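User: I'm curious whether this sequence folds into something compact or stays loose and floppy. Could you predict its structure so I can see for myself?
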Amino acid sequence: MKNILCTVLILVSYLLPAQDHPILVTSDWLKKNLNEPNLAVLQVGFLKYDFDSEHIPGAQFLWAASLAPDSPYGSFNAPDPDQATAVLQNLGVNKDSHLVLYHARNEVSITARMFLTLENLGLTGQVSYLNGGLEAWKKAGNEITANVLPVKKGNYKVKMGTILVDKDYVLNALKSPNRVVVDARMTRYYDGEPSGYPRNGHITGAANIPYTEMVDAENLFKPVEQLQPYFSQVAPKDKELVTYCFIGQTASVVYMAGRMLGYPIKLYDGSLQEWSRDESLPMEVTKK
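Assistant: Here's the prediction. I'll summarize afterward.
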C-alpha cells in the first residue's frame, strides 16, 4: 500500500501544473532564495563577454540566439523544439524549475524576449525576471563572481505554445472586436518617421504602446499603477493584445508589461521586418 501511495503522489506531482511564480522579483528576493534547489538563474545576452567577467553566483549563461535563431526570412524565430530542449537541459532546467532571468548592461529587450520565449516553450508561470538586472544586484551590494559552477543536466522537455503568431493571425485580429493590435515601437516610428524599412508608419488600425515607456532610466520596469494607463487607453483587460515592433524583440517588453497587468497577449514574430515588405498588407502613417 505504501508503494502504491508513493507512486500516486509522484504521478500527481508530475501532472499538476507548476506553481505560478511572480513575473518580477527583486534583488532582495533573489538573495534570500538564491540557494533554493529548484532555482535556475540565467544571465541573458547577445554575447558572453559580460558573463565571463562577472555574474550572479550560480548563474548560467543563456545565449539569446540559442532560443531565438535568425533565418534567411527574419530575426528571432521560434526555435526547433528538440534543439530548445537540449539547450534548456544543458542549463539544468527541470520540469519543476523556477527560472530567474536577468540582463547585464541595458539588454532589457532581449531578456524580455527570452522571458516570452520560455513561456512559449511551455514554462508559463515558472519564469521570473530580476527587475533592474545585474546592475540592480550590484547596487544592492550583493556578491558577484567570475566562477561558473557545473550544472547537472535537466529533464525539461519543451512543449510549444501559441504566443508567437503570424501575419494571418494579425490580419484576423484587425477584424476582430475582441483583439487589439499594438505597435510597441517609439511613437515617432509609429507616426511614420523613416526607419530604413521598405514602408514607413504602422500596421493600419494598430494602437501604440511604446516599449521605452515600460521601464525607467535605470532599466527597471515601472510599477503596475504607472504601466496601466498606457494599456487602459488601448483596450480593456478582456481583449487580447497582439503586439509587434521591428523584428520581434522590443515588443517583448510590452508583452511582459501586459502579462504583469493581466492581459492576454501575443507577439507577431515577423513584425515590420516581414509586414513592411509585403505590399498587400495594410500600413498607414499618422495624419496630423
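Summary: The first strand starts at residue 24 and ends at 25. The chain has two domains: 16-139, 164-284.
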